[in-house]
Design brief:
It is built from 5 helices and no strands. By secondary structure, it is mostly helical. α2 packs antiparallel against α4.
Length: 92
């Protein structure tokens, strides 16, 4: 999978780019399931300000369902091809 010049330009202009097929649907579905499960457990209203500033699902920040979207797909290589090798922060 390669990044086109148009996709690089879109990243520059919009700050993001969608690359269809970069993440397999099964992995997206697993991440959505984990997020929906987290929301299904409810959000502590006392934590809303913290969640808005950091993450609505802090328990998922290092979950494989989330980190694998980057670490186990072509996304890292695609990001480095647009931004530069070694210039993309790791996802842990």
């Amino acid at each position: 999978m390669k990044v086109t010049h148009a996709q690089k330009l879109e990243l520059y202009e919009k700050g993001y780019v969608q690359i269809p097929g970069a993440v397999p649907r099964v992995m997206v579905d697993a991440a959505v399931k984990a997020i929906n499960h987290s929301f299904g457990n409810g959000i502590d209203p006392a934590q809303m300000i913290t969640f808005q500033a950091q993450s609505f699902c802090p328990e998922l920040r290092q979950a494989s369902e989330i980190t694998d979207l980057y670490n186990k797909t072509p996304v890292k290589q695609l990001a480095e091809s647009m931004i530069g090798a070694g210039k993309v922060n790791p996802v842990e």
